[in-house]
């Protein structure tokens, strides 16, 4: 049986402030967290929804160095972009803080000092790479070299991006510092470690025995880590950017960002409720929930709880409803490749469509496995569901009330069996929706909410009030009263999912406030009350909008290919006599056509200055045949003839390959007589 709590603290993973947030972050963390927070508030429960920017760590220093600015400049810029974007999307944080705040610095320092004074850390000395020119120890990302596994150059000190292997900086062959370009040396350094192995038996019981209700992906990942055996984890590192380790003799050392960041949940709560923050963190009657992506499961289920256990006095999370990853157009979202839909850009390019994004991301939420976002699906869900089902029903009901009753809510007569059946269907959907939201099944809950709109559409279609008004106005009044009550129910049940639409609909129906107890009731809109003029809740997304977004992604992919492109390695040397054996000439294209039953092949008639020849070339994907007629091309004249799809080819047309794999025919830049030799 689920335990009842007095209040709920909801935390959402702290986005890293070295870039904006994208739809992967939203689908994985922030939209589901907001749905749940809004749902609890509608139920009248006491809720604190905490968020904030994670502003320390090496990636921020790297970005700052690259741009020639300070780390503070970087985090100020992105913190504001992220905070403003969340607010515009309707993510209803009670506080959105940051880990560079004075409150956080003090909270994190005090937390570390408490553990230090209790003897909860182990101090270890190890050898790390040191840049003598820069005068500092090198974080893993500040070291590059040759991967010992695949032999590729340019591997980072923590991972080779070519083969994906995790590394230690000391594993690299021929390591170099990215700060100065010099060869680093090994130097001794000391750090403090949290002995996770000490807390393994407690964590094992707490997770594997006491929290079997957690999502399978969360429970399974935790079990895997526990079964492998936990190891001590460093809580400090040599770095200039971060919260200084509050221990004498620790100059040049800061709190490791993984240790510092989750304490941000505590410090942000302190900022939100300076006098009463402890009830949110230390009262056993408070339930704590962490909304995160799957890459943060270990930190929130094992590492942070171990920190809280070591400190003492803090609640542990009751649940961690982590999501899997969202892909984009069948490809993994990548910030480095700019393969993403950035929230702040979406808000500018598709103004007024916050609810559409929230709806689509919930409908495609990667709750149990990775899922996929496509712009075509975005368009289809908007046009076929939000416009054609939800928007259509509400608009029809309100237009009919204005048409037949001057915008005044008609008085309902006695309900027929059909009316009673509709009431029961709506109430059943509300019950299913509540149960799904209670158990963090937001995708299923959204289906339940939309089902109420489907019920309304079918009810109007079956009762046909536009026909009935001529013969039975009293029955028509009841039907349209019921329809308006369904509209009011939609304003309530959609508030967690699409709050902007919900507020608009509530305003049209003159509902002064919304609460969850209203859901399933059919007395929400008062008889004789004048409702507002019907306004469309959603509008169609045109093909041109989708095409522009797909084109934008394609351009990002092409730019990324160009940025990463390197020429192929030069082939083995050949001597001049060998080269002279190759007879390269210029020819003029007289005719060009596709080869039947061969998608890639074009057949050329070439004026080669020697009576002409036929050449078959595999470039049909990149050219229209008619565009090549009259062009001068280079071809190899002394290739032995060979048959391709029944056509004898007497040579090879030369082409160059672009980074994206496309081919461009090679030819002279000025006019050259057919048959002229190249060399």
TrEMBL record:
It is an enzyme of class 6 (ligase). Keywords: Ligase. Its EC number is 6.1.1.10. It comes from the Bacteria. This is Methionine--tRNA ligase. It comes from Lepagella muris.
């Amino acid at each position: 049986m689920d335990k009842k709590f007095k209040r709920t603290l909801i935390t959402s993973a702290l986005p890293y402030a070295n870039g904006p947030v994208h739809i992967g972050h939203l689908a994985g963390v922030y939209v589901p967290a907001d749905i749940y927070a809004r749902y609890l508030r509608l139920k009248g429960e006491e809720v604190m929804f905490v968020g904030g920017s994670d502003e320390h760590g090496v990636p921020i220093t790297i970005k700052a160095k690259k741009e020639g600015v300070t780390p503070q400049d970087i985090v100020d810029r992105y913190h504001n972009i992220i905070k403003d974007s969340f607010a515009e999307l309707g993510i209803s944080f009670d506080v959105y803080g940051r880990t560079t705040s004075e409150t956080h610095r003090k909270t994190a320092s005090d937390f570390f000092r408490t553990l230090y004074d209790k003897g909860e850390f182990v101090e270890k000395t190890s050898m790390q790479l040191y840049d003598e020119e820069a005068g500092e120890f090198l974080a893993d990302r500040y070291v590059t070299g040759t991967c010992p596994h695949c032999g590729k150059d340019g591997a980072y000190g923590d991972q080779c991006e070519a083969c994906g292997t995790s590394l230690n900086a000391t594993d690299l062959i021929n390591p170099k510092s990215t700060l100065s370009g010099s060869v680093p040396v090994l130097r001794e350094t000391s750090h403090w470690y949290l002995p996770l192995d000490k807390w393994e038996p407690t964590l094992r019981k707490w997770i594997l025995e006491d929290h079997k209700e957690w999502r399978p992906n969360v429970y399974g990942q935790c079990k895997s880590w526990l079964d492998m055996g936990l190891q001590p984890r460093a809580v400090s590192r040599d770095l200039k950017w971060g919260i200084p380790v509050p221990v004498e003799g620790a100059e040049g050392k800061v709190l490791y960002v993984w240790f510092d960041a989750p304490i941000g949940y505590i410090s942000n709560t302190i900022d939100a409720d300076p006098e009463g923050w402890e009830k949110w963190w230390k009262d056993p009657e408070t339930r704590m929930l962490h909304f995160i992506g799957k890459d943060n499961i270990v930190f929130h289920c094992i590492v942070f709880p171990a920190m809280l256990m070591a400190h003492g006095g803090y609640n542990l999370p009751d649940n961690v409803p982590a999501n899997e990853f969202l892909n984009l157009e069948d490809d993994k979202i990548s910030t480095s490749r700019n393969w993403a839909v950035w929230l702040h850009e979406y808000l500018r390019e598709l103004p007024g469509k916050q609810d559409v994004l929230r709806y689509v991301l919930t409908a495609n939420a990667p709750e149990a496995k990775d899922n996929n976002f496509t712009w075509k699906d975005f368009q289809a869900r908007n046009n076929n569901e939000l416009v054609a089902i939800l928007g259509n029903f509400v608009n029809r009901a309100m237009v009919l009330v204005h048409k037949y009753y001057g915008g005044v809510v008609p008085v309902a007569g006695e309900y027929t069996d059909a009316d009673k059946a509709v009431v029961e269907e709506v109430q059943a959907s509300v019950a299913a929706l509540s149960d799904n939201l209670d158990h963090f099944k937001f995708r299923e809950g959204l289906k339940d909410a939309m089902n109420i709109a489907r019920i309304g559409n079918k009810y109007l279609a079956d009762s046909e009030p536009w026909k009935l008004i001529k013969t039975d106005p009293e029955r028509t009044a009841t039907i349209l009263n019921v329809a308006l009550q369904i509209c009011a129910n939609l304003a309530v049940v959609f508030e967690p999912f699409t709050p902007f639409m919900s507020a608009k609909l509530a305003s049209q129906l003159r509902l002064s406030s919304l609460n969850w107890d209203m859901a399933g009731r059919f007395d929400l809109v008062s008889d004789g009350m004048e409702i507002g003029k019907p306004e469309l809740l959603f509008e169609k997304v045109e093909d041109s909008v989708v095409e522009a977004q797909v084109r934008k992604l394609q351009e990002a992919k092409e730019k990324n290919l160009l940025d990463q492109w390197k020429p192929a390695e030069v082939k083995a040397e050949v001597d001049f006599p060998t080269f002279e054996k190759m007879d390269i000439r210029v020819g003029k294209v007289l005719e060009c056509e596709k080869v039947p039953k061969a998608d890639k092949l074009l057949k050329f008639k070439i004026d080669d200055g020697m009576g002409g020849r036929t050449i078959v070339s595999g470039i049909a994907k990149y050219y229209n045949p008619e565009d090549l007629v009259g062009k001068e091309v280079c071809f190899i004249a002394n290739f032995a003839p060979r048959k391709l799809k029944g056509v004898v080819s007497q040579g090879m047309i030369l082409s160059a390959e672009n980074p994206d794999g496309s081919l461009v025919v090679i030819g002279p830049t000025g006019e050259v007589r057919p048959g002229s030799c190249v060399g």
